[in-house]
Holliday junction resolvase RecU
Amino acid sequence: KSKSKPDFSNRGMSLEEDIAATNEYYRVANIAIIHKKPTPIQIVNVDYPKRSAAVIKEAYFKQASTTDFNGVYRGRYIDFEAKETKNKSSFPLSNIHQHQIDHMKDCHKHEGICFLIIKFSVHDETYLLPAHHFFPYWDDQFNGGRKSIPYNDIKARGVLLPFHYQARVDYAKVLDKLYF
Amino acid sequence: KSKSKPDFSNRGMSLEEDIAATNEYYRVANIAIIHKKPTPIQIVNVDYPKRSAAVIKEAYFKQASTTDFNGVYRGRYIDFEAKETKNKSSFPLSNIHQHQIDHMKDCHKHEGICFLIIKFSVHDETYLLPAHHFFPYWDDQFNGGRKSIPYNDIKARGVLLPFHYQARVDYAKVLDKLYF
Ligand SMILES: [Mg+2]
Ligand SMILES: [Mg+2]
């Protein structure tokens, strides 16, 4: 760990937890309303006991048809996916699924603000990568291109997200600069 | 059933199914991207069999902390809840939960487009009621006001949603008039 990093590093917290904390802060501080979507579940069998809550007895995880997070910021539609990688020098595209890209392309077409939040845990750095920078990397992999995005490209095309005590992944500030 | 109604009535389909079909049409026809959020589930016990998919063995339904539908239309954030009632002369407020109102008030504050879609199954009529018309009825019930919205008020303040074969609950057209 570099000595120049501040003491209140977000190490130890998962990216999802940091974003959840940030979203809650944004809600309470009246900055934005962003929620994580529930994991979609295929329910097969439910028990209805007489005097207590229904119990799901058999269910399966389904592929999500969208990204994980969406909501509203300054009237605009916000949509993003968050991914953490232990990889040092690139972000493997296998972390993302085709249906998530399809969804982001759809939203992008309708002028939603779409992006990825990518955390390189080894560097303890988290980047916001606008979807329109990401799409070409995704599409190129099917035309003989590489199966990952170099760390240096993300550094160059993305924006490093500042860590603040309350907004651990302070993406709203970056959206101000990029989209408004 | 009134004789003036067209043959391809949506009777028999649930409001949720009609909205799902509409959303799918909007997506394919490149009109809007709106999805229903998955039902939130509290997972307690999961089995990981050796050669097959993980099976959820015990789980419970959780209260949703948001509304059912959201997405993007013409760059704006869209958020709504859909409710069907068999009541003839009013919409009982007990159909809606406080946390759904809190969420809609939050989104409304951030300039999202928020509304209810209310179907009176007896009349075979479906209305879009903008959230800012709904909020006063909600708040008044705690100050001695009535616990339901009169059908006639919804008729007066809401907009009757047209039924089309592909867009069974064609709310996008109504949003054009109300919000753009
Ligand atoms: Mg995810
Ligand atoms: Mg509902």
Notes: Residues 19-179 of chain B form a domain with the Trna Endonuclease; Chain: A, domain 1 fold (CATH 3.40.1350.10).
